[in-house]
Backbone:
């Protein structure tokens, strides 16, 4: 049994963990074609080849207000179709829950003097938190996100099976409970 985290995008992060949280696969997937339709199909094919029977999957949903809604919808829909074709179930996590799982709020500064983290700052904060919490790093922020999502997948399974969780911060268990309560 593997625990899969998928961060869908034109460059999709994919991470598979074992029951103890050890990394089995960590890769950034993308299509190589110049044609967008072909590139999207190549991305779907790459995911399809990685998926195995018995995989426990959590896939991140699209960010609210994404600027490229059609592209995002095509990527997310295509990747979800590959999971369904493999006859696998999936759970969903939203981008805010992924950040919350590693203690990133999206804000910096003290009360009364806070400002929102923007794009690269947010990605850097998540990457730093993954290193701090799990001693995990990767050159691709998509793979780092997929790793966090795979940890969510693993602990979601462990909670359903009444096993001790590997990640026990209050906000981490809140994310797991929120996903369980929506399922």
Residues:
């Amino acid at each position: 049994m593997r625990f899969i985290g998928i961060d869908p995008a034109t460059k999709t992060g994919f991470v598979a963990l074992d029951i103890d949280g050890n990394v089995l696969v960590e890769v950034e997937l993308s299509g190589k074609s110049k044609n967008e339709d072909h590139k999207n199909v190549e991305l779907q094919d790459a995911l399809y080849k990685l998926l195995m029977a018995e995989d426990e999957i959590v896939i991140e949903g699209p960010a609210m207000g994404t600027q490229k809604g059609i592209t995002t919808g095509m990527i997310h829909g295509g990747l979800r179709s590959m999971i369904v074709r493999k006859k696998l179930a999936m759970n969903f996590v939203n981008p805010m829950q992924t950040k919350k799982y590693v203690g990133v709020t999206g804000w910096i500064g003290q009360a009364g003097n806070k400002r929102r983290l923007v794009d690269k700052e947010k990605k850097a904060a998540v990457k730093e938190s993954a290193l701090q919490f799990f001693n995990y790093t990767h050159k691709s922020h998509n793979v780092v996100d997929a790793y966090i999502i795979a940890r969510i997948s693993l602990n979601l399974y462990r909670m359903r099976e009444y096993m001790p969780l590997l990640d026990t911060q209050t906000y981490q268990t809140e994310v797991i409970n929120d996903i369980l309560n929506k399922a």
